[in-house]
Design a protein that fits this description.
The structure is a homodimer of 419-residue chains.
Chain A (H helix, E strand, L loop, with lengths): L2 H16 L3 H17 L1 H17 L4 H7 L3 H16 L7 E6 L5 E8 L2 E5 L5 H12 L3 E5 L5 H17 L7 E3 L5 H8 L7 E4 L3 H10 L12 E5 L5 H13 L8 E7 L3 H18 L6 E4 L1 H4 L5 E2 L13 E7 L2 H11 L4 E5 L3 H10 L4 E6 L16 E3 L7 E3 L5 E12 L2
Parallel strand pairs in A: 3-4, 3-6, 4-5, 7-8, 7-12, 8-11, 9-10, 9-11, 12-13
Antiparallel strand pairs in A: 1-2, 2-16, 14-15
Helix pairs in contact in A: 2-5, 2-7, 3-7, 5-6, 6-7, 10-11
Amino acid sequence: MTTREVLQAAKAAAGALAVLGSEEKNRALLAMAEALTGAQEDILQANREDLEKAAANGMPDVMMDRLRLDADRIAGMARGIREVAELPDPVGAVISRIERPNGLVIDKVRVPMGVVAMIYESRPNVTSDAAALALKSGNVCVLRGGKEAFGSSSAIVQALRAGLRREGLPETFVNMVPDTSRAGANELMTAVGLVDLLIPRGGAGLIRACVEQARVPCIQTGTGICHIYVDAAADLGMALNILDNAKTSRPSVCNAAEVCLVHRQVAPVFLPMLAERLTTARAAAGKPPVELRLDPAAAAIIPGTPAGEADFDTEFLDYILAVRVVADVREAIAHIAAHSTHHSEAIVTGDAGAAGLFTASVDSAAVYVNASTRFTDGGEFGLGCEIGISTQKLHARGPMGLEELTSYKYVIRGSGQIR
Amino acid sequence: MTTREVLQAAKAAAGALAVLGSEEKNRALLAMAEALTGAQEDILQANREDLEKAAANGMPDVMMDRLRLDADRIAGMARGIREVAELPDPVGAVISRIERPNGLVIDKVRVPMGVVAMIYESRPNVTSDAAALALKSGNVCVLRGGKEAFGSSSAIVQALRAGLRREGLPETFVNMVPDTSRAGANELMTAVGLVDLLIPRGGAGLIRACVEQARVPCIQTGTGICHIYVDAAADLGMALNILDNAKTSRPSVCNAAEVCLVHRQVAPVFLPMLAERLTTARAAAGKPPVELRLDPAAAAIIPGTPAGEADFDTEFLDYILAVRVVADVREAIAHIAAHSTHHSEAIVTGDAGAAGLFTASVDSAAVYVNASTRFTDGGEFGLGCEIGISTQKLHARGPMGLEELTSYKYVIRGSGQIR
């Protein structure tokens, strides 16, 4: 099948999935989970072949690890599908009801989007996660994973479709783009009328390509140049713990901090604490030290690399932190407005006025007071799951769960009303 | 100023408007309304010049009427602004609050989009409506009206800005694109990072151009190929009233019906009633009769024009109705799925099963049971106002009021939590 044919089959299946009841969807999810476990050997074999090709192509170790599956990881994927079955069904909920003076009853009812397309990169487990979340929210999915994981993802999708067939449901509820060329991705981006929502998950290049080329509704996700601002009124010990956590607990993720802004009044005390914790102490403990890229005012206080202008506009995803001294909370807010990707930012302060100004003025999906930016996550926000983190303002912002994969329609019941 | 400079000025003003309180916004709206009335002579003079040019260019009478302003219409525009001041402020509302086991308090707070751009056509009153709704929802607007109304719209915007200045507020809260070339519209569509939401209001050509060319978040509005399905179990008198109202009460608007689908069991009785009411009776009353474009089964029952295939895919916006006989509610649903613009559709039936199947299966913004499609309107839906009717599923669907001009952000308050 061509990508176009896959999209047409997906569109044709959308009506049936949209009206499927919660129980049927949950049974389908459990069957998909079981089929996934049952297909373990096929999936591992396909994954070994992917890994061999990747090794031959010189893929770095960290990427190889993302691509690698084993029995535990497949069990984890199946468990993930079963957890999605446990989540409440967002579809059909009446969001609001009004009765008009003319007797019309207007219900705003939650409905699926229809066909949700996802473009993502190497981790094959995204394939089963995305399929499960789409199905639970009543959406037919069209998946386009990374080319390095093509064999693994194909084997996973085959298993999921076998599970659907076993429940007597169309296998076209879960679809995969048959090629991994750029043309295939482009076809998803431009399939007006066939794709109701496109979610790209990946690096800045992929997101930019979607913004530039997509003609279908699209949600920008993920890129996070997150800031921690340490105010004059901060508890400096708390600030240090938050910064350490936000920078070093998992530097490769989008909610990790990339920039620290420090109020000039506390910079002479705080910056030496920061340098000690993130460089000296880490090195002494055998952990990778954080490279500090310092503006001139910070460089006058602690040792580090002089920051180039690009350092305040880079998602390092690594043990690197850009540091700038600011005059006050307003300068911190202005810096964030100029350099942020509108993902997550935090202020550490004991001053309610500074906190209020920061949360009101910073235009990002998640704005924290006295907590780490690492909490920007569907699970941590109580959504139960996550399909991505939106950094745009249209439709959904921040972590996207099942509800964010839905739209609504108005159902109006009357008794012959005319206008 | 160039369009780019206007956009930059708008973006620079967005932060200040986003945090403006409800009272200040309402005072600004009242000042804008007063300034508009005060500038009546200037606006009427500019409008006379627009009208003269339009007449010289051979503009049709119906368009001339849309363009024409008088003292009453200006008073109506000012009244419209004052009514927006009376509406509740959507900004700042806490949509939901959760407290996590770790003590984090996560508020989902309604916030403005930022910069909202609108591209619209000839009616100059849209200029003041859009400016008022944007300001009330905390958004800076960038307006790009039709070129025929450029002088009138400029005079209106000048008056609104004078009102803002009188309140000590930046006039850049309300902006107008300085030229009406296609290049100007294109610059709005592609101003990534400067435009947070683009709303095109106008004909199918404008909407298509935005879908194809926009790189900024955009909402498709307006195009309505609306269907009325008369079921076997319909009260035929009710069906006739609803169809008459939906077709003839205001044929030029997007929620008017364009297609009637009739169950074959009632077609022999209903179609002659329809022909009598929409053609013979109207002609006898001196009203424009409705031209009926009939599929072969309908043509075997009543006189009319044979329908071409395009007639079921055309937004006539005129006294024309396409008519098709269908086997049952499922065929009606399938026809709508293939031909609708996902705006508004209605079923007339006394059968709860047919009504339930129709409302569950028809994938449109507004789905009616026993009522006219003409109710799809912000005012009729209790939103208090309307900036447009979305026919897409991302973000907002159906009539868009003040809330639909907002986004949200998460504000998370902690006491040093790390992950």
